[in-house]
Design a protein that fits this description.
By secondary structure, the protein is an alpha/beta fold. Helices cover 51% and strands 21% of the residues. The protein is built from 6 helices and 5 strands. Strand 1, helix 1 and strand 2 form a beta-alpha-beta unit. It is globular, with a radius of gyration of 16 Å. The relative contact order is 0.21. It comes from Haloterrigena gelatinilytica. InterPro entries: Rossmann-like_a/b/a_fold, UspA. This is Universal stress protein. It holds the Pfam family Usp.
């Protein structure tokens, strides 16, 4: 069985990317590894918001850890997108908290650790100068991933 790594966040482009990966999984009998990521700053903001809601409503959430929240988001996002394609697609969620500049390393190490043989990610259109100055996640993964990479351009 093949295993494909899909890098997501909550944008429409990532919804389309996950649908594309779902078609791949359905047609090729592959498992999807959904890598959901957030930055440490966004995780901190999320934790602060949860604490505020808990105080204001006098309630307690079961999971307030940023990793658990990222996992739950990815599970719900995946279920929503993939239910129309094939609800029986095998999905494994891998939540990570990392700086955007380190994301390519996390993608590559997760893909290697889980023996993924295909990667799906969203890329940004940038000029060659923009790539040189700001870097380009898709380009780094394309150059260093040992297998096919599907890139959906935003």
């Amino acid at each position: 069985m093949q295993r494909a790594l899909v890098v997501i966040d909550d944008t429409e482009a990532h919804r389309r990317l996950l649908a594309e990966a779902g078609e791949f999984a359905r047609n090729g009998n592959a498992e999807l590894v959904v890598l959901a990521w957030t930055t440490p700053e966004a995780a901190e903001e999320g934790n602060d918001a949860i604490e505020w809601v808990e105080r204001m409503e006098g309630t307690k959430f079961e999971e307030t850890d940023a990793t658990a929240m990222t996992r739950r988001f990815a599970e719900e996002f995946s279920k929503d997108v993939l239910s129309g394609i094939d609800p029986d697609i095998d999905v494994r969620v891998e939540p990570i908290i990392t700086e955007e500049g380190d994301l390519h390393d996390e993608i590559l190490s997760t893909a290697e650790r889980l023996a993924c043989d295909h990667a799906f990610l969203v890329g940004q259109k940038r000029s060659p100068t923009g790539k040189a100055i700001f870097g380009d996640l898709a380009q780094r993964v394309l150059l260093n991933f040992d297998g096919p990479v599907t890139v959906l351009m935003e």
